[in-house]
Amino acid sequence: MSESTSTATTSATTISSANSSNADDNARKVQQYKDNLINRAETLIVKEFPERIVRLNSLLETPQFSQRSFCDVYQELNIPVPEPIVVEDGVGTDDVEKKVKRQRLESWPLSGGSDGTKVHALPSGRVDCNQPISELILIVKPVIRALVEDSNLLKMWISFMIPKIEDGNNFGVSIQEDTLAEIQSVETEAAAFFDQISRYFVSRAKVVSKVAKYPHIEDYRRAVAELDEKEFLSLWLVLSEVRNRYCSLHDIVIKNMEKLKKPRSSNADSLY
Tell me: the pLDDT tens digits for 107-143? Predict the structure, then answer.
């Protein structure tokens, strides 16, 4: 055998050994991740779920959620009603329109030039978000996020415990699949709560823009107040639903813990 052939064989052996070592190391790390996740999920169910249920019950009993009325979330819009324009005799329609535009438009200078884009200007400045609702959202959003993360963890936990596909003795596996479907439903519903919050701000901005455009129409101002009241009720409902979902997940997992961890029972002991 030539020296070059011997060197190539040695290099191939070294590469093969390195690849095998990396594969074994990766497999060990994946198994370690699975073991840690299983331990974390069991601690979550047994210890942390009851704590979160108690904490959410206490939060729902605070004055922010239990005693606040719709009047407490009302916020005055910073959009005054302009003085009506008196049309005098002898003044044409074109003159009135020009006068209205002068009141509603101003020039906003652009960088590098004196000309600007015509924009609508509010004489009292910007219109802020509803402060009471924003404070409640800051409380509710971390709770929603925790439910999403917990549901995802439980979903992976059950997925790791599902045994390989075999014929017969699949009653425990069906329990795992039903529980997994329930957890996935909770995860999807919790994620939808975030979308509900973002849609509130978009909807409110559209109605507020209508108030700015038509400040004399009282219905638009009332629509903003109604939207704020609806969001307050929705936030209370979201917090209640999160508490209820924690209760249902804790109940279904605890009742079926044995089948979830050991879906297939062994009949070997009964043969002796």
Answer: 444 444 444 434 456 777 788 899 999 999 999 999 9
Helix (H, G, I), strand (E, B) or coil at 76: coil
Question: What is the CA angle 9-15-19, rounded to 5?
Answer: 145
Q: State the CB neighbour count (10 A cutoff) for residue 173.
A: 18
Residues with Cβ within 8 Å of 189's Cβ and at least 6 positions away in sequence, in order, are 241, 245
d(CA 38, CA 62): 35
Cα distance between residue 85 and residue 243, in whole Å: 55
pLDDT for residue 107? 41
pLDDT the model gives residue 266? 59
Backbone angle region of 173, left / alpha / beta, with phi > 0 → left and psi within -120 to 50 → alpha? alpha
Measured torsion, CA atoms of residues 198, 199, 202, 207, in degrees rounded to the nearest 10: -140
- Strand ranges (E), 105-237: 105-109, 116-120
- Using one digit for the tens of pLDDT, what is the confidence trace for 191-241? 999 899 999 999 999 999 899 888 889 999 999 999 999 999 999 999 999
Side chain identity at 183, as an amino acid letter? I
pTM (2 d.p.): 0.76
* Cβ atoms of residues 211 and 224 within 8 Å: yes
Assess contact for 212 and 221: CB atoms under 8 A.
no
C-alpha distance from residue 139 to each of 80, 103, 144, 226 (Å)? 32, 41, 9, 22
The candidate with the shortest Cα–Cα distance to 247, out of 88, 103, 50, is 50
